[in-house]
Amino acid sequence: MTTATAPEVVCVIEGALGHVTLNRPRAINALTADMVADIATALDAWERDDTVRCVLVDGAGERGLCAGGDIRTLYASARARNGAAEAFWRAEYTLNARIKRYPKPIVAFMDGIVMGGGVGVSAHAAVRVVTERSQVGMPETGIGFLPDVGGTYLLSRAPGLLGTHAALTSHRLGAADALLCGLADHHVPADDLPALAEKLRAGADPGEAAASLATPPTEGTLDRDRLWIDAAYAQATVVEVLAALQARPEPAARAAADAIRTKSPTSLAVTLRALEQARTLPDLETCLDHEYRAACALLAGHDFTEGVRAAVIDKDRNPQWLPPTPEEVAPETVAACFAPRPGDELGLGRSTTA
User: Which residues form the Enoyl-CoA hydratase/isomerase domain (predicted)?
Assistant: First the structure.
């Protein structure tokens, strides 16, 4: 007898609620191409269904909403040069933009680990709920990549330069810091999430329902670190950022410098440039267009496959970056990551001019 395989995404209508549950708990619900397609299909159907008043996105298991994209599949695509990674990002980024513009409220339960692609399916939602267990972050510079899925849009709009700090260091944001940075709207204790979901099934206003169960989160760290963060990251290059951090008297600033030095120098430079650009871009869609260019360029380079190898494949935590230091990253290498891609633009925004 054949055992049925559980679906990777469960999409059901419960009362007034369209409920999307990412269902790969052993992989912390890491996103695959099929999962992205299934979510998009459900959103298409529910947009036309008058019984669905709002949508809920959550994750199966106790570990978190979503750990990001299925990095092993992206790694295999980068090595094979088969175009699967580019196709995945095209579909994923299109879904991120759709979540942002969806005509019905989308509520995201950002419980537990919410990294990379997990941020993309949650932090663009209309009502974003964190819990005492939330760990929200964009860790891409540690694998030779950049904050994508609209990460540059979100982090560039955080107060001051908190988003730059989070992006370059891969800092994980707890509930209070996620709220401060604008990646979440309400802190609701994890034990109260079922009650919130029940309110949504009954047709309650999503924002009001979340606010009715919200409580003050445990104090974060970024608010008290704003002084040195805003001063140190107000530099034109990664080399200058590192020097400014090292010169600060605060131990946390020097710890940030140490963390940055472990990341891909190329990714750091590309990320800093992407955040600078994103601050001037008009909308999420145009930021996604620029992220797509950079993602495809980094995929073809050395550091992405090396970073994933060290972190996920061999797990030796000893990536050999090329070039190995921020001082050696050529400006033209960074510029090339944002050059238009003739015949292969994402094209979501109003303008894809470099």
Answer: 18-338
Catalytic residue among 92, 148, 285, 303: 148
72 vs 69: CA distance, rounded Å: 9
Q: What is the tens place of the pLDDT at every residue in 160-197?
A: 999 999 999 999 999 999 999 999 999 999 999 999 99
Write down the mean pLDDT value for the chain. Answer: 96
CA angle 142/184/75 to nearest 5° reads 30
Helix axis angle, 265-278 relative to 162-169, nearest 10°? 160
Sign of the C-alpha dihedral computed for residues 100, 105, 106 and 112 taken in this order: positive
69 has pLDDT over 90:
yes
Q: 93: exposed, middle or buried (C-beta count within 10 Å: 0-12, 13-18, 19+)?
A: buried
Structure tokens at 235: 């530099």
Kindly list the structural domains of the chain, giving each domain's residue range(s) and its CATH number in brackets, ordered by start. 9-336 (3.90.226.10)
What mean pLDDT comes out for the span 3-28? 94
* pLDDT recorded at residue 5: 84
- Is 69 catalytic? The answer is yes
Question: Can 117 be counted among the known catalytic residues?
Answer: yes
pLDDT value of residue 354: 45
Catalytic annotation, pick one of 18, 59, 68, 117: 117
Q: Which of 18, 59, 68, 69 is catalytic?
A: 69
- pTM for this predicted structure: 0.96
What's the CA gap between 305 and 299, in Å, rounded?
Answer: 8
Could you say which of 86, 140, 185, 303 is catalytic? 140
Spell out the alpha helix ranges (H) of the chain: 33-47, 71-80, 84-101, 117-120, 151-156, 162-169, 175-180, 193-201, 206-213, 222-232, 238-247, 251-261, 265-278, 284-299, 303-308, 331-336
Q: Which of 191, 172, 193, 189 lies closest to 181 in space, CA to CA?
A: 172
